[in-house]
Amino acid sequence: MMFSLTLLLLILIAILADRLLRQSLLSPLTKVPGPWYARFTSLVLKWNELTANRTRYIHGLHRRYGPAVRIAPTELAFASAAAVKEVYCSGGSGYDKTEFYDLFTVYGRRTMFTTLNKGDHAKRKRILADRYANSNIVRQPSLDGITERAANFVARCDESVTGSGSLDIFVYLHSYAFDCVTHHLFHPYGANSLQSKQDEEIMREVTFDDSLQNRLVQYYSPTLHSLFGTLLSAFAKPRETPLADEFVLETSARTDTAAFTVLNRLNEAGPPADMEPIDIAAECLDHMAAGIDTTGDALCFLMWELSQPRSLRYQTRLREEVLMMANPTGGAGFDKLAYLDAVVMEGLRCFPAIPMSLPRYVPRGGRDIDGYFVPEGTVVSCQAYSVQRIDEGVFPDPDTFNPDRWLDPKGDAERKRLFFAFANGGRGCVGKHLALAEMKMLLCAVYSRFETRPDESMAPEEMEMSDQLISSRPLGQRCLLRFLPVGCHRGE
Ligand code: HEM
Predict the structure, then answer these.
(1) Where does the UniProt annotation place the signal sequence (predicted)?
(2) What are phi and psi of 311, to 5 degrees?
(3) What's the CA gap between 225 and 405, in Å, rounded?
(4) Which of 429, 439, 442 to mutate to test the pocket of ligand 1 (most atoms within 8 A of CB)?
(5) pLDDT of 22
(6) Position 265 in a domain
(7) What pLDDT is stored for residue 489 in this prediction?
(8) Stretch (H or E) spanning 452
(9) Which atom of ligand 1 is nearest to the CA of 262?
(10) Please, what is the average pLDDT of the chain?
(11) Which of 91, 147, 236, 310 could bridge across to 214 with cysteines, CB 3.0–4.6 Å?
(12) Three-state SS for 192?
């Protein structure tokens, strides 16, 4: 008995030693620089994920070790244009996604975002892509909805001037994004959370979600999660969005939405793409969620930065350009404003709403990435936060917000190659044109009417980046700004 136990123990030790030896000394990944412990364990990485700090942790490693880093025994992070091209663009849509995306399935269904392999993704994208093409976004009925919602946001700014003196733009920019994306999904049944408290509650449920730790346990240990889920939820909240679910399940059952909407396209898809009602609802909920935090947080970080004394000259230049337009608060004129474009690009460079890694599996046979041979099955990723600041030749003084850098024709191609806020390739953000239209329209509407300043009660730490599962939001989950009306508005 004693002998067989000792033998068993020895066998276990031998297996473990063999695994450690392979990982730490014999794997081709040993050639990739990184901290010593990453050869043996992913615990440090996981700890940073649990404490909402993954992006900054990986960025610190890039600064220390360069654009290719081993971050765990079978995981690498890259931050170069060559790696972005290989991982996200090779063969059109790059490498397949990892099971990390299972965490985002909706009603138990895979959506375009959560399909893992190329084939499934291409089928779904074929149905949806045209509703997000720029030509569809800048059509009048679509644009009118955004103009109207930007005016609703401005009405909130007006109220703050005569009321409390400041406005929590974290809340109302998420409302704006919610109203805009649901307009594009469901018009005339889109939400109106800038004016209706009931709709605002739906936005709050999605925006103030605090399920990071619970969902990470679900990802790393599904068995533990299913056995002790109830106990766990006493310490780490699960994601629960009953109001949003009800809104989407009801609204996505409609068959009479406007021609430009996503739901209209899903309803008309027909065979062979035939989608069951629950698939249609899942796709709509996914786009709704994808469109709220991203655009809301991107605008929030950007307006906070524009309001700082160090950035007031950029705000002034932006206002001057916007006021030159015949109709600064309507139409598609925003699309031609070079400085507005530079401000938005720089905002998304410094504060990408999805700054985090987008994990992919290296395909069969392995691949060469950025000069390293990487075996099949290795998890590889790039994160926008690092891709957009690690190369100081392309982005000098990378931590400084400076829209003017985008106006220099020299280096334009290099800057664009390293712009990764919407990812890249066939699986890049399908909502990019909608998001840009929303952002630009809102900035025109606000800065043609107001100067903005931070409210004195705000502490800078409140605006630090707090990582969620894939996106980041301001740590304090509030952002108070003061809106000072400008006297020389042309449209008045
Ligand atoms: C500033 C705003 C936005 C940013 C920075 C952003 C960023 C991104 C990024 C980085 C991805 C790739 C994610 C990955 O590979 O894991 C993505 C995908 C996606 N985004 Fe956005 N997004 C924004 C706004 C929107 C909006 C308004 C929508 C509206 C529906 C949207 C819908 C989607 C969808 C459906 C996907 C999945 C695309 C696919 O897998 O083919 N996004 N977005």
Answers:
(1) 1-17
(2) -110, 10
(3) 47
(4) 429
(5) 67
(6) yes
(7) 43
(8) strand 450-454
(9) 30
(10) 93
(11) 236
(12) coil
Query: Which amino acid type is present at position 133?
Result: A
Ligand 1 closest atom vs CA 421: 5
Atom of ligand 1 minimally distant from the CA of 384: 10
Instruction: List pLDDT tens digits, range 394-412.
Output: 999 999 999 999 999 999 9
Determine which residue's CA is closest to atom 23 belonging to ligand 1. 294
Any idea which residue has 């070079």 for tokens? 338
With respect to residue 429, please indicate whether it lies within any of the assigned structural domains.
Answer: yes
Mean pLDDT computed over 259-271: 89
CA 257 to centroid of ligand 1, rounded, Å: 23
Mean pLDDT of 233-248: 88
Categorise residue 191: left if φ over 0, alpha if ψ from -120 to 50, beta otherwise.
Answer: beta
Query: Residue 454: which CATH number?
Result: 1.10.630.10
Model confidence band, residue 428 (pLDDT cutoffs 50, 70, 90):
very high
Q: What pLDDT digit, counting tens, does each position of 171-204 carry?
A: 999 999 999 999 999 999 999 999 999 999 999 9
Q: Please give the distance, rounded to the nearest whole angstrom, from the Cα atom of residue 294 to the centre of ligand 1.
A: 8
Q: Please state the domain count of the chain.
A: 1
Closest CA to ligand 1's atom 6? 422
Q: Cα–Cα distance between 78 and 69 in angstroms, integer?
A: 6
Residue 299 Cα, ligand 1 centroid: separation in angstroms? 15
pTM (global) more than 0.90? yes
At 168, list the tokens. Answer: 């929590």
Q: How far is the CA of 326 from the centre of ligand 1 (A)?
A: 32
Tell which one of 96, 111, 294 to mutate to probe ligand 1, the residue whose CB is within 8 A of the most ligand atoms.
294
Does the annotation place 429 within a ligand binding site?
A: yes
349-371 per-position pLDDT tens digit: 999 999 999 999 999 999 999 99
Q: Reply yes or no on whether the pLDDT at 491 is more than 50.
A: no
Of 331, 269, 283, which is closest to residue 185 (Cα–Cα)?
283
SS3 annotation, 53-66: CHHHHHHHHHHHHC
Burial class of 125 by CB neighbour count within 10 A (0 to 12, 13 to 18, 19+): middle
Share of residues in the chain with pLDDT > 90 (%): 80
For residue range 35-62, list pLDDT tens digits in order: 999 999 999 999 999 999 999 999 999 9
The residue whose CA has the least distance to atom 43 of ligand 1 is 429
Q: Which domain holds residue 371?
A: 36-485
**Position 232 in a domain:** yes
Distance between Cα 125 and ligand 1 center (Å): 13
Ligand 1 site residues (CB inside 6 A) read 112-113, 125, 181, 287, 290-291, 294-295, 298, 352-354, 358, 421-423, 427-431, 434-435
Between the CA of 463 and the centroid of ligand 1 the distance, in Å, is: 22
Residue with tokens 């890249």: 424
- Mean pLDDT lowest among 75-79, 400-404, 426-430, 468-472: 468-472
